[in-house]
Amino acid sequence: MNFDNDLVVGKLRRWEKFLAAYRLPEWDAIPDFGLYMEQVVQLLKQYLDYLPPELRQTEPITAAAINNYVRTKLLPEPRKKRYYRIHIAYLIMIRTLKQSLRLSMLQTLLPGDLAEEDVKKAYAAFALRHQRCAKYFIEQVRLTAAAMFDREVTTELNVRDTPEMIVSAAILSGFTNLFAEKLMLLEGKTLADGGSIEVQK
Question: Where are the alpha helices (DSSP H) in 77-115?
Fold first, then answer.
């Protein structure tokens, strides 16, 4: 693999700055006047498009996906073909979490029949958690790529070049997805029926 280190470092800095400033919309900033499907898709594209312009090849969400979420009861039915704040908040959470969790797990985590006040609370907590995770992610990338930035920070995860960073990111993503799924599988379980907690030597 052939990567220009200066280009990669420049892009990392640019993405770091973008993520540090990026915020999901606050509950009251989400439109609540009834949007049609195409308007919802366009709005979610604005809210959820993390990719820089040169990498935008796929839509962050489609009308077919939204219809599927309604059909599977992950998302409340629209009212007279219009989507309101509650729908958009659900879609922001669903779309963000769907990158790591299967739909069946999302249905457990975000039941589609929550009262609006419960969705408001869940969304506010989610937006804050999203912001904190973005900050943590930035810090971890900074530590991991320190050698590429010519910094004197040393950790076991330090990488020397872009291919090592790609492999590390893919492995960490796999572990993170597995961790989230394993935790979701514990829902409703107790020490009596949740399997062994014995630490193997």
Answer: 85-97, 103-109
Mean pLDDT of 79-85: 98
In terms of pLDDT, which residue wins out, 155 or 136? 136
Structure tokens at 102: 């299967």
Number of domains in the chain: 1
**19 lies in which domain range?**
5-184
- Residues 6 or more apart whose CB falls under 8 angstroms from that of 143 comprise 153, 155, 157, 158
Q: What percent of the chain has pLDDT over 70?
A: 95
Q: Is residue 17 part of a domain?
A: yes
Whether 193 is covered by a domain: the verdict is no
144 close to 168: Cβ distance less than 8 angstroms: yes
**Residue 66, burial from CB neighbour count under 10 angstroms (0-12, 13-18, 19+):** buried
- Give mean pLDDT, residues 148-171: 79
CB 88 within 8 A of CB 43: yes
pTM for the model stands at 0.84
Measured between alpha carbons, how far is 55 from 110 in angstroms, rounded to an integer?
Answer: 30
Residue 201 inside a domain? The answer is no
